[in-house]
């Protein structure tokens, strides 16, 4: 029988061949990870923050300020096209962020999270599109579905159940499938942002300047998405990981500091927002319970709504 020929040796400096003996870049976490230098990802963090502000926060604003003649109420609005772009660009940037992690991360968990994220954001796209278009018909976000004047008088009454189902897909199911994997991916990336070199635990000036708009967006995300519990648990997990790694002599690198400080500043902004609206009786009625965090759009329709009336 023919003798087995050994595998040819890899050239010095060349990447290892693919195969079961050489797991992929984001395969199972190795028992021992070598800590590498990870410079601040200014390009990714800048694009990430910019598209969050333009495509997420800006989509309802674009829907309101652009003339109705351009986007009739029975057609997708400008905000819907913003949302479509967000659903494509955001998972791409998250994947690029994971790729730049100096630590080997669990590939399967990342893939499942990205798939769930896209599905949840797409569900939210439909529900949010209809709910925001209802503003032009007099829908008031500071009231529940059944308390809204334009919904309360619908006949037959089973139509109200349909609108409540739409609200459930928008505010509950869509948000859960969107935000849970979103914060899970950020936390997975955060686990690789530690270094034994203290000199790497400092942020460049660009990171400090970018931290303001990044923190403000997280404030909007938590308040409008009503995901404070998810946010605070993610923050506590990050804090526990920082304390655990500190015992090993590891500190956060510039990317980890940027993400961690952004969460802290956003938490302070949320606290200020709650204190400011603490005595608002109408918003208190819509958001009962121990956790009282009003949505910015509910505040807008209650106190600042100057929308032009839709043409009959």
TrEMBL record:
TM helices/strands, residue ranges: 81-98, 110-127, 178-198, 227-244, 256-278
GO CC terms, sorted: endoplasmic reticulum; membrane
InterPro entries: CLN6
GO biological process: one example: lysosome organization
Keyword Phosphoprotein: no
Keywords from the UniProt entry: Membrane, Transmembrane, Transmembrane helix
Protein name per its UniProtKB record: CLN6 protein
Organism (species): Platysteira castanea
Higher taxonomy: Eukaryota, Metazoa, Chordata, Craniata, Vertebrata
